[in-house]
């Protein structure tokens, strides 16, 4: 069996509600499509905000976790190595600014993220949130901070 293309499959011990190995969580999966990362996710009725509309907090969680996985995968890509290699990196949210543009039907959605800038441990991303019909219903600016580097053997603190 070959290496999984999904970023989250290369995050051992991740129990995050959005992107981790959490049977009650969202269990998102992200992968590369050229220079963009993509996450296709099918919602359920329990994620309604209003009848048949997705909850904004769930949308923010999807964006957050998709972008943290993208920052990690981008770091590996910039170093010219696969996701299953050492050292392991993990990212946490520095900032997350979501603009909700239109109501999002509670169906399948697609997220597309792009890395805009990398400076030290900081990765700046843009993310578009698309409905099943391809309509952009939200967009986000995200800053991801590398908080773990297994070569250092401990959590690290971001210094600008």
UniProtKB/TrEMBL annotation:
UniProt GO MF annotations: thiolester hydrolase activity
Membrane topology: Peripheral membrane protein
InterPro entries: HotDog_dom_sf, THEM4/THEM5_acyl-CoA_thioest, Thioestr_dom
Every Thioesterase domain range: 53-136
Reactions that this protein is recorded to catalyse: tetradecanoyl-CoA + H2O = tetradecanoate + CoA + H(+); dodecanoyl-CoA + H2O = dodecanoate + CoA + H(+); octanoyl-CoA + H2O = octanoate + CoA + H(+); hexadecanoyl-CoA + H2O = hexadecanoate + CoA + H(+)
Primary localization: membrane
Keywords, alphabetical: Apoptosis, Cell membrane, Cell projection, Cytoplasm, Fatty acid metabolism, Hydrolase, Lipid metabolism, Membrane, Transit peptide
GO cellular component, one term: cytoplasm
Keyword Lipid metabolism set for record: yes
Transmembrane segments: none
Domain of life of the source: Bacteria
Broad class of enzyme this protein falls into: hydrolase
One GO-annotated biological process of the protein: fatty acid metabolic process
A Pfam match: 4HBT
Record localization: Cell projection, Ruffle membrane; Cytoplasm; Membrane
Entry EC number(s): 3.1.2.2
Family classification: Belongs to the THEM4/THEM5 thioesterase family.
Protein name: Acyl-coenzyme A thioesterase THEM4
Taxonomic path: Bacteria, Pseudomonadati, Bacteroidota, Cytophagia, Cytophagales
């Amino acid at each position: 069996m070959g290496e999984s293309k999904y970023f989250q499959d290369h995050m051992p011990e991740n129990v995050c509600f959005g992107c981790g190995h959490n049977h009650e969580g969202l269990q998102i999966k992200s992968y590369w499509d050229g220079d963009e990362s993509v996450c296709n996710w099918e919602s359920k009725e329990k994620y309604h905000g209003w009848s048949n509309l997705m909850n904004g907090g769930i949308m923010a969680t999807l964006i957050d976790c998709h972008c943290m996985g993208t920052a990690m995968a981008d770091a590996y890509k910039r170093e010219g190595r696969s996701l299953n290699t050492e050292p392991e990196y993990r990212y946490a949210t520095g900032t997350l600014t979501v603009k909700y543009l239109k109501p999002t039907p509670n169906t399948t959605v697609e997220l597309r993220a792009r890395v805009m800038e990398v400076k030290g441990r900081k990765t700046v991303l843009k993310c578009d949130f698309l409905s099943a019909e391809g309509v952009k219903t939200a967009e986000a600016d995200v800053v991801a901070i590398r908080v773990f580097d297994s070569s250092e053997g401990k959590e690290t603190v971001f210094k600008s």
